[in-house]
What we know:
Blueprint: E1 20-23, H1 25-28, H2 31-42, E2 47-49, H3 63-71, E3 73-77, E4 87-89, E5 93-96, E6 100-101, E7 106-107, E8 122-125, H4 128-133, E9 156-159, H5 166-173, H6 175-184, E10 190-196, E11 213-219, H7 222-228, E12 229-230, H8 235-247, E13 252-259, H9 265-280, E14 288-294, H10 299-308, E15 322-325, E16 331-334, H11 337-354, E17 359-363
Parallel strand pairs: 1-2, 1-3, 3-8, 5-9, 9-10, 10-11, 11-13, 13-14, 14-17
Antiparallel strand pairs: 4-5, 6-8, 7-12, 15-16
The chain binds iron/sulfur cluster.
Iron/sulfur cluster (SF4) binds at residues 103, 105-107, 110-112, 165, 197, 232.
Amino acid sequence: xxxxxQPLARPAARRWVPRRVVATPPAYDHPHGxxxxxxxxxxxxxxxxLRSARLTGVRGESDRETYARAKSTMAxxxxxxxxxxxQPIAPSADWRFDLAEGCPAHCQxxxxxxxxxxPPVTRVYADLDEILGGLxxxxxRGTVTSRRPARREEGTTFExxxxxxxxxxxxxxxxxxRAVEHFGGWDAPVQLRxxxxxxxxxxxxxxxxxxxxxxxxxxxxxxVTIRFEGGTSRLADRLAxxxxxxxxxxxxxxxxxxxxxxDDWRTSYGALLEAVAAAVHGVPxxxxxxxxxxxxxxxxxxxxxxxxxxxxxxxMAEDARxxxxxxxxxxxxxYPAPVMAELRGWFEAGIAERxxxxxxxxxx
Length: 364
Ligand code: SF4
């Protein structure tokens, strides 16, 4: 047992077993849809074949019941056409593409709350081959990382975890494994990127990835992880998984998010950085990055999260925050500038000291 498992140990995350899996008729027409159905059924889970593409039976009698039903449902569907036109995803990557939307975990700050509408059903995409085949036209056309001299050597970057957590679903879909192999066989300056709070990396070890996939582990200090990240893997297990992939030659990364100035945050985040240093110790040719994201919320995400987690102790007090306008005028609440400056200065110095080979990709 490591220090990270104490003092508030919790059991290792178990692989998600959805209570209900449905498949829409268009999904059967895609080889990957049929692969997912076979994979799910091989795990003893029945797949309900819907008569139409409309998913019913998710709404319960209360918001709580709807949330519980949706969170335990997986739908095998074809991606909406809008998802096939890729969008830049600053500051992470040149382009984002989606292999699924939704996640079975229960993080009380989940950023999906402000991004997705309707009950939080997990939808996995059957048209994977078409989605991967459509990426080639975006190569060399990066608008985010490719334009920044500091990140140009990453090539054209494609982010595949904007609306989901890949390792929460991989055992039911096989989708991200195929994506890694796709990029491994794509002999061009391109990079697949995804981030996860899970540790189920066994099926990725030994793939022909050619270092064209960067897997980042979303990590936080123990008080945040234990209090707010229900249903995810333990921090120690995520770091062990990071080591496993780094030893297998993958570029790896940390998504330290959401950073919060909790009580005694310097000590808690210091322990996190030390645990990461121990996890990567002795890894040959280590390629490690860090992405630093502070906590923020919008009026919409706060309302949804308080509906999902009414007793949360997550701080979302508008009067303790600075109001900012994002893209298209949307309002978001971030920490005030002096708090941001203090956090940023501490993280930049802390990473330079404890993880000297680690490149910070951005702070936000
Ligand atoms: S693991 Fe990520 S996507 Fe899943 S509930 Fe937590 S924050 Fe949301």
